Amino acid sequence: MKVIACYSMKGGVGKTATSVNLAYWAAKSGAKTLLIDLDPQGASSFYFRVQPSSKKWAKRFFKAYENLVKHIKASDFENLDIIPAHLSFRNFDTLLAGFNKRKNRLKRVLKGFNKEYDLVVLDCPPSISHLSESIFIASDMVLVPVIPTTLSERTFEQLMAFFKDNDYPQDKIIPFFSMVQAQKSLHKATMEAMSARYKIFLNTVIPYSSDIEKMGVHKAPVDTFAKSRQASYAYHELWEEVSETAKKLA
Ligand SMILES: Nc1ncnc2c1ncn2[C@@H]1O[C@H](COP(=O)(O)OP(=O)(O)OP(=O)(O)O)[C@@H](O)[C@H]1O
Ligand SMILES: [Mg+2]
């Protein structure tokens, strides 16, 4: 089982759009996939039309894998299950602060899914916190959407530096360009500069696309309502590149 986090400390960069479409394509390609929505906003749960639990359960989240199992919901798609977010997940940081070995908590609970799933996708909230650190430890791959603009470049550099300063393996960080508007000279120049500086960017580029925005209207992954369109191809390609990269991991 591989764990892939869609993560950035920056908000609104495409983490949720990536989680939803990546989980969809992974499941479609035959991988038993579990999407865990860690963001109290619950956006990926919404896109999959999955209702959150009616009870607060953040307190039990990091205690044992069995607590998570109770909250697994089936999606409309074969091979794809969801653990929806609950608003009480906003307390994750405070809760984690109270645990011994808090950084390893998430890894420990996720281990329980090893037999049942090939892939766990984590849709992460935009922060750099106790939860983020537990995500860095639990994940085999930290997939980072980067909008090619100056501030996003800066945020990405901060993330690389954070990994280095805290001895997290930098090779877990797998960035790709998101919401790209190829006609913008700033986007083109930033992509060229960042790809030359960091040789770790995936080749797949996710374009800025109104089809991706429409996921909110259709409450579904982009392929289900915009088949054979550029945005759908781009996420399929992203999944293929990500799964090839995952195979090379130890
Ligand atoms: N490639 C894209 N093209 C156009 N719009 C996009 C694209 N990706 C995401 N969006 C839109 O941008 C907004 C933010 O996207 P998304 O929710 O995926 O980002 P996020 O990083 O998960 O945000 P947050 O930090 O709030 O969790 C949404 O309205 C989404 O529909
Ligand atoms: Mg999100």
Automatic annotation (TrEMBL):
<dbReference type="InterPro" id="IPR050678">
    <property type="entry name" value="DNA_Partitioning_ATPase"/>
</dbReference>
<protein>
    <submittedName>
        <fullName>Chromosome partitioning protein</fullName>
    </submittedName>
</protein>
<feature type="domain" description="AAA">
    <location>
        <begin position="1"/>
        <end position="164"/>
    </location>
</feature>
<dbReference type="InterPro" id="IPR027417">
    <property type="entry name" value="P-loop_NTPase"/>
</dbReference>
<dbReference type="Pfam" id="PF13614">
    <property type="entry name" value="AAA_31"/>
</dbReference>
<dbReference type="InterPro" id="IPR025669">
    <property type="entry name" value="AAA_dom"/>
</dbReference>
